[in-house]
Amino acid sequence: MAARFGILARSFSTSVARQQLVQPPIQVFGLEGRYATALYSAASKKKAIDAVDKDLKEFSALLKTDGQLKEFILNPLLSKDLKKEAITSVLTKKNASPLTANLLNALVENGRSSNIEGVVNAFSTIMAAVRGEVICEVTTAKPLDAPAMKELEATLKAFTKSGETIKVTTKVDPSIIGGMLVSIGDKYIDMSMASKINRYTALLQEAV
Question: How far apart (Å, rounded) are the C-alpha atoms in residues 174 and 141?
């Protein structure tokens, strides 16, 4: 276990690139990351990042509790205009920021309704960085026991800056067989046994 954490420490030893003006303090990737970054930039200019963060959290929570609304928004047979009307109605009742409405309606208009939750999560990651929180997700084949969890948290804490706090969440995925997958901020490392097996299999196939 100690050797594994040593590998983890070396894997995360590279410095994080500095971000430019109105860029988020952390990079978020993929389609959802691009939308979240654009929203952060717009909200920063309007000094509305906290309001937008609150709006997105409330809308995400509503989708989790209101199955009818979620079905309505994700239904591919319904028109985009109907979906945008529903979203605008919900946000108006909550006095949400126009930036939030623009973002959600843009996702619907572009046929990206299914990405709403992903964009909310990406924006939450950005906001965690704004608050000095470093989000870390660890996936293991089996649940970590208390000593292993304590050692992991101590290892990861070494990569935080002064004033930052680390938020560790764990997931169990038996398919990785052993080892772990770790994402911390915008860094990712695959130390799973499944990954090693695939790598060795590929090498053997090349050798044949």
Answer: 4
pLDDT tens digits, 42-91:
999 999 999 999 999 999 999 999 999 999 999 999 999 999 999 999 99
> Torsions phi, psi of 15, nearest 5?
-75, 155
Cα 116 to its chain centre, rounded Å, is: 12
- In whole angstroms, what is the distance from residue 142 CA to residue 176 CA? 10
Q: What whole-number distance in Å separates Cα of residue 139 and Cα of residue 182?
A: 6
Neighbours of 200 (CB within 10 A): 10
> What average pLDDT does the structure give for the chain?
85
Burial per residue of 77-91, b for 16 or more beta-carbon CB atoms within 10 angstroms, e otherwise: eeeeeebbeebeebb
